[in-house]
Design brief:
The protein is an alpha+beta fold. About 25% of the residues lie in helices and about 25% in strands. The chain is elongated and about 65 Å long.
């Protein structure tokens, strides 16, 4: 059970290692295009169809027709990767239960966007966890964990790719552990591994979540930008001298270590570099995208913009 590219890696590992995948469950096709007339299948569906696997696409997980169809496959076990919340009638159906591959080191970063939030919060390590599903989201008994370092310069795309591959590995190891133990592998309740530090959540990210707060430290803004790059992208409002505002996406920044001494959001041009004052230091903007324009290096942005030095961001 899964939908995005992240889940395809695990499905592919199951197929290539000759596990008996009896069916695939994914989201319904979505309308795309200018007139919303073309239907776009999920990445998981594309892979499943290409490999002759039956595909189920329920609108509602409690739909009696879907439940009956799912039960007809007599699956011993269900694997969930980047999907949706399941009702008990679904996750409790197989004899061996249902386990999830979650892109974080549970119990930290429960929620829909664990990869983004780990980078945004400046973590130096994350990982993947497999756990049995139960009534609450991301709270079931932990089966296995694998750790993954986050370099200071890494953006969310780098971490996403790393965890996608690691997720496929841990899925196979978890499957083997479940099979060997006849459905009862060693697993531990999350309450027994709660850290002394507060639990950090990973809620869904919306457009307003992605607006940069320049009153924070340069390090916090630096982490925020890379935690949203390349998608969905951190953004700010570029305010021209005449007060006109334009959305400016920021994909990459560079720490300068230079004390700002000016109001947060103040812009400064230093040669071919574009700097923004944060709460403590200047932060260099490296890759930008003005609304309606292409993504570009800051030097090219400066060449095409007039009065940048008199503008500000907020």
């Amino acid at each position: 059970m899964g939908t995005p590219e992240f889940a395809v890696e695990t499905l592919q590992a199951l197929v290539e290692n000759e596990y008996n995948v009896v069916a695939v469950v994914t989201q319904p096709d979505k309308p795309v295009g200018r007139h919303q007339t073309e239907m776009q299948p999920s990445e998981v569906k594309k892979y499943a169809v290409a490999h002759g696997l039956p595909v189920l696409q329920p609108e509602k997980m409690k739909d009696p027709a879907f439940i009956e169809q799912l039960r007809s496959y007599h699956a011993n076990l269900q694997v969930v990767v980047a999907f949706r919340m399941l009702p008990e009638v679904v996750w409790a159906m197989p004899a061996y239960g249902t386990f999830n591959v979650h892109a974080a080191l549970l119990p930290q970063y429960r929620g829909a966007a664990p990869i983004n939030w780990a980078v945004i919060n400046g973590e130096t390590e994350t990982g993947v966890t497999t756990f049995f599903l139960d009534h609450d989201i991301d709270t079931g008994r932990i089966i296995l964990k694998k750790h993954f370092p986050i370099p200071d310069e890494a953006d969310v795309e780098y971490v996403y790719d790393g965890l996608m591959h690691l997720g496929a590995q841990i899925c196979l190891e978890t499957l083997d552990a479940i099979i060997v133990a006849d459905g009862h592998p060693v697993s531990i309740p999350q309450d027994s591994v709660l850290a002394d530090s507060p639990i950090k959540s990973a809620p869904k990210i919306f457009k307003e979540t992605c607006q940069i707060d320049w009153t924070k430290s340069a390090k916090q803004v630096y982490d925020f930008v890379r935690g949203l790059s390349p998608y969905p992208g951190a953004w700010t409002m570029l305010v021209a001298p005449d007060g006109k505002e334009t959305v400016l996406k920021v994909y990459k920044t560079r720490k300068t270590g230079r004390a700002a001494g000016q109001g947060s959001g103040t812009l400064q041009i230093d040669g071919k570099s574009l700097l923004v004052a944060c709460a403590d230091e200047w932060l260099e903007l490296v890759e930008l995208q003005l609304a309606g324009k292409k993504r570009m290096q800051a030097g090219d942005f400066l060449n095409g913009m007039k009065q940048v030095a008199d503008s500000s961001v907020k």
